[in-house]
Amino acid sequence: MNRAARPRTPRRPTRRILLALAIVVLLAAWAIMWRPAIDAQTSVPSFDPATIERGQRLAAVGTCAACHTVDVSRPYAGGRALDTPFGTVYSTNITPDARTGIGQWSEAAFTRALREGVSRDGHLLYPAFPYDHYTQLAQDDIRAMYAYFMTRPALEAPAHDNDMTFPFGFRPLVAFWNILYLKREPWKPDAARSAEWNRGAYLSVALAHCTACHTPRTKLGGTDFSRHLDGGEAEGWYVPALNAHNPSPVFWTQEHLAEYLRTGIAPDHAVAGGPMQATVENLRLADPKDVDAIATYIHSYLAEAPLRETPAGKPGSLPGSLPAPAAADPDLARMQAGYAVYANSCARCHEVGREASSGAALQLQKAVALYDPDPRSLIHIVRDGIAPPDGEPARWMPAFGSILTDEQTGALAAYLRRYGAGQPQWEHIEDAVKKARQP
Amino acid sequence: MTTYHLRVNGRDHAVDTDPDTPLLYVLRNDLGLNGAKFGCGLGQCGACTVTLAGESVMSCLVPVSVVGNRPVGTVEGLGTTRAPGVLQQAFIAEQAAQCGYCIAGMMMRAQSLLAQNPKPSDAEIRKHMMPNLCRCGTHMRILRAVRRAADALPARGTKT
Question: ipTM greater than 0.90, yes or no?
Answer without folding.
Answer: yes
